[in-house]
Amino acid sequence: DGGITQSPKYLFRKEGQNVTLSCEQNLNHDAMYWYRQDPGQGLRLIYYSQIVNDFQKGDIAEGYSVSREKKESFPLTVTSAQKNPTAFYLCASSIGPWETQYFGPGTRLLVL
Amino acid sequence: KNEVEQSPQNLTAQEGEFITINCSYSVGISALHWLQQHPGGGIVSLFMLSSGKKKHGRLIATINIQEKHSSLHITASHPRDSAVYICALAGNQFYFGTGTSLTVIP
Fold first, then answer.
1. Which residues, 6 or more positions from B2, have their beta carbon under 8 angstroms from its beta carbon?
2. In terms of Cα–Cα distance, which of A88, A62, A74, A33 is closest to B88?
3. Sign of CA dihedral B20, A100, A20, B42
4. Lowest-pLDDT range, A37-41, B29-33, B55-59?
5. CA distance A67 to chain B (A)
6. Could you say which DSSP state residue B101 is in?
């Protein structure tokens, strides 16, 4: 079964903690993306990667970091520098840059 | 700045009604995508359009490049169509609309 998975589904973070959200795909896609969704707003791009070992900042990269050591994996770390991290985080992948994207089920992050 | 605007924001329809959701944009694009987000949060890509019209089952998507406008139509709407429909522009990055929340009442 090909697809894109995210874990965990829900994540709680204490203030000052870094947390890492997982995103894995077995679609053999080159491009992967991280988005943040807040109520009443459209999806906003955090980071994207068009190829292994390369990634670029999106519109709201401050307070986040990523790595792309393997084609299948694109983990997102929410650092303590992100002042308002409570949100719904979606990972996506596509065959090539900005083509039809396949989305994971998302991770809801809540800061306690 | 709002590169993409959707209307209406919220829409309630009776089962069986014909539904139209609109998307207007202000930037140059290579393609326009329609996405569906279900209450649990998962997003599915419905269409990718660069010109003309596409149909899949009861869903029809059209785009007018000159007028920078796209519409998503749902014929014979059903309660399972209840979801948020998002318009996304593909250019040098993706620009997302804020979505149209559709509720279809039995």
1. B26
2. A33
3. positive
4. A37-41
5. 20
6. E
Interface test with B, best of A29, A37, A43 (most B CBs within 10 A): A43
Task: Quote the Cα angle for A101-A26-A107, to 5°.
Answer: 65
Q: Measured between CB atoms, does B29 come within 8 Å of chain A?
A: no
- Tokens representing A41 are 């707003």
In B, minimum Cα distance to A45 occurs at B94
Question: What residues are paired with A89 via a beta bridge?
Answer: A36, A107
Q: CB distance from B96 to chain A under 8 Å? A: yes
A42 to chain B, any CB pair closer than 8 A? The answer is yes
Helices (H), B1-106: none
CA B9 vs CA B6, B77, B82, B97: distances in Å: 7, 18, 14, 10
Residue B33 to residues A58, B70, B94, Cα–Cα distance (Å) = 19, 10, 9
Q: What is the pLDDT of residue B91?
A: 81
Q: What is the average pLDDT across A33-62?
A: 93
| C-beta separation of A100 from A94 below 8 A | yes
In this structure, what token pair is assigned to residue B8? Answer: 């209406």
pLDDT tens-place string over residues B74-84? 999 999 999 99
